[in-house]
Amino acid sequence: MSLLNKKLLILMFCVLTLLMISYLSLRLKSDTDFNLESDKKRIKFSYRKKALLSNSGLNYKQGDHVVDGIVYSSFGNRENNTLDELSFEDAFQNGADNDVRNHSKPEIESKYTFNKQKESGVMTEYLIANKDPRSERLLKKVFSTMNDDLYHKFFTRIKYFEIKNRMTFKQLPPQGKWKLLISTMKELGYEQKLPKIINIGSKKSGTNAFGFFFQQHPEVCHSLGNEVHYFDWNHEKGTGYYKSRMGFATKDQISFEKTPRYFVTEDAPLFIQKELPEDIKFVLCVRDPVQRAISDFRHESELQERRKFKGRVDRTKYLSQNGIMQGREFEKLVLTPNGEVNASNEIIRTSLYFTHFQNWLKYYPRDRFLVINHDNLQNDVLTELKRAEQFLGLKSYFRADMFYFDESRHGSCMKGKPRPCPAKSTPGFLPKAQLNPQLQKKLYDFYRPYNNAFAKLIGKRFAWMNQ
Questions:
Q1: CB 258 within 8 A of CB 227
Q2: CATH classification number, 197-290+347-466, choose in 3.40.50.300, 3.30.70.20, 3.10.310.10, 3.90.1170.20
Q3: Which terminus of the chain has fewer CB atoms gathered within 10 Å of its CB, N or C?
Q4: Predicted local confidence at residue 200, as pLDDT
Q5: What predicted TM-score, i.e. pTM, was given to this entire model?
Q6: What is the Cα–Cα distance from 208 to 49, expressed in whole angstroms?
């Protein structure tokens, strides 16, 4: 065979080899993309709500590349907040992937139980170190708040992890899911951070509506869930628990949470002062104290009925109820046997804004609080949101053309959102209590001196303070 023929043969062999490699690469990419889309639909079905709650502030910051070394940032203890880093894949060394495939879920959870503390005494991420019954529910909340771009990038990385370790995300125990979630989100530029702004209350004064609109700002990241209740009910669990309830924020976003019960919890401002950054700020929503008490009574009455029937309430049973009947029940609750206003009753006491705010001012100056009147929030939400932007030094985002007034709800809603209006915090199967004139006068007389003192504290008067 001549030299020329040999060269041609070698060239043809190289060309065929390259074509074969290209073909196999395309097939592999096609299969991977197909499986990714299939898995995305599968996980999306199980984890995502039908209405995607888009957050325009969630933007991808880094290049779309695969990082083999998956790292997560642990959270320190309450005293020194020491940081540490561990590799997620350490948990799957020595054939762990085979164990996941061959053993039942309880065996997996038992084998891969993460220690609450490392030898150095550093507390790891709460949902990695602890078995929390709400872990799966919180996962759903995380995925429901991702925008489509972030959601796709996240599960692209998860798919590579699944291929490499021969397992699926769903096979992991909850602690393993959170470890992979935290480390992958960190790669994408997101992490859970302690809040810089807290809506402390008061209950039934528009806190839910404010939070719904405020979280639409691109520089704001809402907590996972509506109310965290760390500084009142769960404080013994530590700041690692608190941080685990925050949403995943970029470095340019601030974390935000609201728990109205903080306002009436005596130790809450002390705990916050000890555990949160010095520049923490607060939103305080207030309302006509009598109307707030009536709304609170309705809310608590409905909760009591729902607990009685384990959440399955037959609304037709309450059709015979009317506002006058509810007013009588309200009167029995808020008056003492001798006919005086019962100041020790929680519904009455919550509306004593002056008393509770005095307690907070022992720990923080007045300029740390943005006080919002419920009526202003209901009738002119844009003005209150612009005040919040200025109060926190955020860029101007909210505009008048983003909102519309919904007559049926008697409040503002936001255009272009899957869920445009704030959710109702009270189902409404019981009628609103109608108070007789004598009781109404007695309540306004009782609250008047407190309202006047509160007006001096905040440096402004609202219309209901003049009743």
A1: yes
A2: 3.40.50.300
A3: N
A4: 98
A5: 0.75
A6: 20
